[in-house]
Amino acid sequence: MGRDDDPHIGIASESAIWTVAASGGKETRLTPLGQNASSASWSPDGARIVYAASPPALGNADLYVMNADGSAPQLLYDCVEWCMNPVWSHDGTRIFYVAAGSFTKQIEYCVLQPQGAVCGIPLATGVSTFILALSPDDSQLAFRWDEVIDNVGSQRVSTANVNGSTQTAVTGNLSDIYDLAWGR
Hints:
Layout: E1 8-12, E2 17-21, E3 28-29, E4 36-42, E5 48-54, E6 62-67, E7 74-77, E8 82-88, E9 94-100, E10 105-113, E11 116-125, E12 132-134, E13 140-149, E14 152-161, E15 168-169
Antiparallel strand pairs: 1-2, 2-3, 4-5, 5-6, 6-7, 8-9, 9-10, 10-11, 12-13, 13-14, 14-15
């Protein structure tokens, strides 16, 4: 994969997770063939990657975790319908993700423990979101949510404490919000 001091760039293509040295070189596929993978998030120590994936024939996506070199991929959480856009907490103890589908529309998280992960813990419900960003101190989430007003779709950004309390809309109606990021 390159020298230890040469950082790597993670790439999520339409159906796989790849890396390449920041200085350039050959791309390395990390996820197994036959698995549709997306939405990768590196652990804070750079040792592991969490991502959403599904077999090609299935319409749902579960959470998986693997070593940074692609070895030892394993199912982290078997989601009810779709889990997507996992975000690793900066302290490495939690993974936040969006659970979506016809039955579920909420932000959930996993607590990572030595004996295994506990996932499916709900935070914000009914938010119809697909985009999350975690604050630098791991205390708040920013998320996009969708609504329809007078038959016109719009999007807003809200924040919430990571325990789900104090949900606050921070923007008015916008459109085409594709990503969120916190600054310091």
